[in-house]
Fold Bifunctional uridylyltransferase/uridylyl-removing enzyme.
Amino acid sequence: MARIALKLDEIIDGAALRAALAALPGVKDAAGSSGVRAGVLNILKDYRAAGMKAAQALLGQDGSGSACAARLSHVMDEIIRALYDFAVAHVYPARNPSAAERMAVVAVGGYGRGTLAPGSDIDLLFLLPYKQTPWGEQIVEYMLYMLWDMKLKVGHATRNIGECLRLARDDITIRTAVLEARYVWGDEVLYDELVARFDQEVVSETGPEYVQAKLAERDARHAKGGESRYLVEPNVKDGKGGLRDLHTLFWIGKYFYRVPTAEELVGKGVFTAGEYRQFRKAEDFLWAVRCHLHFLTGKAEERLHFDIQRDIADRLGYTSHPGLSAVERFMKHYFLVAKDVGNLTRIFCAALEEEQAKHVPGFNRIFLTFQRRRRKLAGTSDFVIDNHRINVADGQVFERDPVNLLRLFWFADRHGLEFHPDALKLLTRSLRLVDKTLRRNAEANRLFLDILTSDRFAEHNLRRMNEAGLLGRLITDFGKIVAMMQFNMYHHYTVDEHLIRCVGILAELERGDDAKVHPLSHSLMPSLRKHRDALYVAVLLHDIAKGRPEDHSVAGARIARRVCPHMGFSAADTRLIAWLIENHLVMSMTAQTRDLNDRKTIEDFADVVQSVERLKLLLILTVCDIRGVGPGVWNGWKGQLLRNLYFETELLLTGGFSEMSRGQRAIEARNQLGDALAGWPGDERERLVALHYENYLLTVELPDQLRHAGFIRDTDKADRALATMVRPHEFEAVTEITVLAPDHPRLLSIIAGACAAASANIVDAQIFTTADGRALDTILISREFDRDEDERRRAERIGTLIESVLSGKSSLPEMIEKRARPKRGTRAFRIQPVAEIRNTLSNRFSVIEVEGLDRTGLLSEITGVLSDLSLDIASAHITTFGEKIIDTFYVTDLTGQKIENPTRISAIRKRLLATLEGAAAERTTKTKTAENVAP
């Protein structure tokens, strides 16, 4: 600390600060001079600003986060010392001070550790010998108001020693603050007395109690912030694997072992020298990230949001490598550090629990008693049950037989045991035993498959294997994706965490935990028993080739073909696993971006799948993959699309698809509608049946046709030109809005714009025209409310908004600007726009697929451009993957033909690319939608 302070003093001298304050004009009358006070404030502000600037510059030079935090703490120390001296000497001097008129200024909290981030709070204890005096009140008040006027966030308390000790006994937070108390200035004798009495009167008899309380506090913090340390927008301070976890470990170690510094924990045997260096290295990195984060944002921002990550990576000097961008390499490093923090913290805290903590009723973990109870574990002499945890029988267990590295987890799973910290420590130090021989050992692979496919604790044990480093050593390609993040807003977890979560979801499907949410997937599982092991392996490995320059599906299949034979799979099963991995995105993309009412879609997908068995396996893998992305990604609408695709494909693969011509099927559908409306007056029934063209009759289910018929009749009776009808779909998690309006080329664009203004996310759209020149459009938006009545009211408001815009009563551009809520973070992403026009995906339509960066009103702009280009949209399929959109439009020209002229295709593509890039956005919004859009 002294070395760092001296280095900073070369740039900004604390003595110079005092001299500047002493030289202020009128300083001898400082108590009553507002001019002097303003001068003091300006000098302190300038000093702090210069100190912040110097600390930031040095951080850029040496990269040490711990040093930066110490430098910033030193700057604050000098300010507080100078401010205290100025107040005592010039503002409120004590002429004949009594024994009570003395004070120690003590840093507590993070400041007490001698570290500060640029935006950290300043936590101070004004320590008194007895009760407060008028002189003490004046000094404290002057200092606090000056610090507040500097725009600092100051946490403070004014107490005597007795009050500190009494409150520390009753409050763990105050106890921790006193534990980290650091003398800054004033009467040092007072501080020394506090430290000595605190150690003797509070700490000496309360070690186990403190351990329990801090572990409970840690668990509550993790639960609040998200249990995973692999969230892709982590909290550097309070997140799992962040700085607070390190602090918790140091607090517990210092308190229990009663040592003043963390370094002394090595001598106590708590850390090995290597483990202590690892912690210091992790701390330095996390401090560097946190300091850069505060400097960059200009505030106490603790979460690494997407829109910040790229800049932090640049500040830390990361560069892009093939397959991984600079920001992805930085975040991978971050998660590896968080993993190290988590591993060592867990082992350290578990060891303390094992040795000292007692069981607390109602607490969410088992605290073990002091006495160690060991008993034999059935079926092995290499492992024992040690206080309800699996432990090694001796230190040579893994050296004697490296297969025991797997047996540890196999026995833990079989007997439902947690892991003793000694076993995990020995395993981590024995990872060098994992070599090609072990990877190809038949017994080791059998044990691994048992662990992976267990119906008990597969996800938990795989995560433990991964955190200990064993999983990445056993499957070397898995090791390459450990802690790897994907820089997008779609994936919530690192790749390895995603894969492990997918295995857990597969186990849930098999058990039937989510049978109501996934009825089809659950019902198919029993029929796949013979391929159960292959399915689990495919789920674990489907993203194993992420981060490579080539297509990760193709590369992943190649890895599977290499490693699966060593796992004991036959050639046929190996081919199946490789096929599942190579095609693991096909079903999801087909369901979400293609028209499932178009027979060509089903035929093309069936050509890929080729068998009902593969179809079943691919459905299960797809469900696991989507659900494993993160909270909120899966919804009922995606489930419905997958089920529709499954049933249509199954029908075709089993020969049940109708061979009746399209015209014949349309006649049959028209007759069915007429029969269903048999109770209507004859002329009314004939008129309604005659309204619909072939595409509507073949696409829309009969119950929906009947609802539409009633809707059209009611609208006509009310003599309304415009009308909307809403219907929430609870299971599918979407809400249907049906719009009946005079047909208009820009109708879908206007509807999409109105939905954007209402912050409603469109997921699908079916566009139909009636024989009397009206449009009957069905729009599906993502559901927002759980209760149908709340969702219905929301949808009705959106419907009213659509009617208002279509009738010309409201201005769409103004509405979008006022009401739309842009997503945070999208500006951080760069997505190369894509616009493709393909004529091979449908027999009747040209299919336009666009990809790009999402923004408010983009769908309205795209559909407006398609209208300007004289294209007739039959259906639109809107898919959002975080910040990225993939929208698909089935279109024809105005004569109902495909777009096949190369020149016209080129012109369409050029216009769409300009819109996706934003060049056409202003023109489209300000001119086209400002036209008279009322039909």
